[in-house]
């Protein structure tokens, strides 16, 4: 990508760990100077039938699919408010 004039950064983060999501967003802002769009695309789903009651899988699904999204919003929103723009 950089050979074609594009810039990219890569970060590893567990979206269920708020501090890691904050570091990811802060790193992106440091690298690019701002954040215009936040795409929360981590997600998972238990494939076990409900009657198998895989409660641990449900907990993990909620942590990733809900908390992960909220942690991303919480990390990006202050930057977007400061710049008075963002999605």
The amount of helix comes to 40-55%
Task: Kindly estimate the percentage of residues that lie in beta strands according to DSSP.
Answer: under 5%
Q: How many DSSP E strands? A: 0
Distance between the termini: 24 Å
What's the number of structural domains?
1
Average pLDDT, all residues = 94
Unreliable runs, pLDDT <50, ≥5 residues? none
Radius of gyration: 16 Å
Description of the molecule:
It is built from two helices and no strands. The protein has 87 residues and is mainly alpha-helical. The protein has one domain (12-83). Helix 1 packs parallel to helix 2 (55-83). 11% of the residues are buried.
Tag the structure with descriptive keywords.
87 residues; mainly alpha; 2 helices
In short:
By secondary structure, the protein is an all-alpha fold. The chain has one domain. The protein is 51% helix and 0% strand.
SSE layout:
Elements: H1 18-32, H2 55-83
Helix pairs in contact: 1-2
